[in-house]
Structures are given as structure tokens and as C-alpha cells.
Amino acid sequence: MGLDYGRMLDLLGIEAQLLTAATHDAHVDAPVWGASGRTLGQTIRHLGDLCEDTLSWLGATAAEQRWDLPDRPALREVTSRFAVRLADLLAEFGSRPPHDRCPTWWPEQHTVRFWLRRMLHATTVHRVDVQAAAGVLPTPIEPDVATDGVDEVLRLWFGYRLHALGITATRPCSVGVYVADRNWLVTADQNGAAVVSSGDVSTTTPDAVVGGDAPAVYLWMWGRLPDRAVETSGDLDAIAQLWGLLQLATR
What we know:
It comes from Saccharopolyspora elongata. Residues 19-131 form the Mycothiol-dependent maleylpyruvate isomerase metal-binding domain. This is MDMPI C-terminal domain-containing protein. Residues 144-240 form the MDMPI C-terminal domain. The chain has helices spanning 5-22, 40-58, 75-94, 112-133, 143-165, 214-221, 236-250, and strands at 173-179, 182-189, 192-197, 208-211, 231-234. By secondary structure, the protein is an alpha+beta fold. It has two domains: 5-133, Four Helix Bundle (Hemerythrin (Met), subunit A) (Up-down Bundle), CATH 1.20.120; 143-250, 2-Layer Sandwich (Nonspecific Lipid-transfer Protein, Chain A), CATH 3.30.1050. A five-stranded mixed β-sheet has the order 3-2-1-4-5, covered by helices on one side. Helix 1 runs antiparallel to helix 3 (75-94). The chain is globular.
């Protein structure tokens, strides 16, 4: 299950091109709406940092050539750095099979595939940021990509990263999450958080349910869309706690 490796590789290249194209008439200090709190220039710089970090995790030769930036670089400079480092990543991913072993920060997967998936979703979310900040109509996210992104943010960030950061819920809650053809049951209490696939959230009687179109749920979980973009029912405080914990896990 999951996105095909070759398709993820193609999609990562496309997302990078869309992001770069959106910067042509943009201002480096344009604010990015949503949870990140960054400017357009800071967003691209951050994404370039992620590229360099991933090259290091992969043990790539290109990781030895760090590209240091000044404190206040021009937009063209941060964009060029991102484009070059992303190209290095694409070359590295393209030269290795998805099951090739490498270190990661998620205990359940230690392969190159983990990093391709991680960078695809990081680039997709930040591409949306950059397009919005630049006043460019956001390119739609394909539903199956968004569905995979929902699974990733729930399992990696909510299910594992919260524990690694030592963050727990203030009160017990359970939330069913659904998009087309996929359902998850998310639980959290003072002892930790857990995520399991659920055949049908309507049969699990959670405290609340949140769902809708996969791209909307995906971007909502990353703090890029407001609550009205998704469908909710049940205990709204439980949904608010889920969203708040996700923002702490992914910041």
C-alpha cells in the first residue's frame, strides 16, 4: 500500500517546479498564511534546509557540499539553493531502490522510500504556502497523494513524533478521520497517542469525526486551511485537541 516509488519521484520534481515558478514575481518577505508563521523567503530557505538534512541522512556524497546562506539572502539566492539541492535529492533517489536501507527518525521504516515520501509531502505543503503567498492560484493536490499525506501526518507525526517530543494530550479523546476509501481512529490521553486504520469510523463510536475531501483534510491537518474546509461532528473540543497536537508535532 502507498504511492508508487517512481510516481513519487516524478511528483517531487513537479512540485519543485511549481514552487520555483511561483517565486518569479514574488516578494521575499511576503507572509505565508497558516500555521508555519514564516515568510515566503523563510519557507523556501527552510525547504532547502530539509533537502540538505535529507541528503545527510541518506549518506549522499552531495551532502558534503553545504550551501551556506547569509542572514538575509535575496529570494533568487534561496530559490536557487533549493532548486540545486532538490536536484541533488532527485538524483540520489533515482539511483537507489526504494528498499535500500538508511537511517531515519521513524522506528517503523529505515529505507530510502521513507525519505522520498517525507520530502514529497514537505515540498507539496510548502509549495501551497509559496503559491498562496505569491498570489498564485494553488495547483490542486491529487486525491491519492493527499490521502497518503493524511496517513503520513497521522502515523509519523501524531502517532510517533508527539511521543518523541514528550507531548501528551490534556484529556482523553478519540477522533475518527475519514477521506474517500480510507479511515483512521486516532486516540490520545495523558499516556500517549495512537493511530490505527479503521474499516469504518461510524462503527468505532469515537468522541468526534473529521473528514471530507482528501486534499482539504490534508492541508487542514498541516494548519493550512480553516476548520470550515473540513466536515466535523461530535465533540468539537476533541477535534480542536487533535488539531492542536498536530501543530505541536509538526512545527
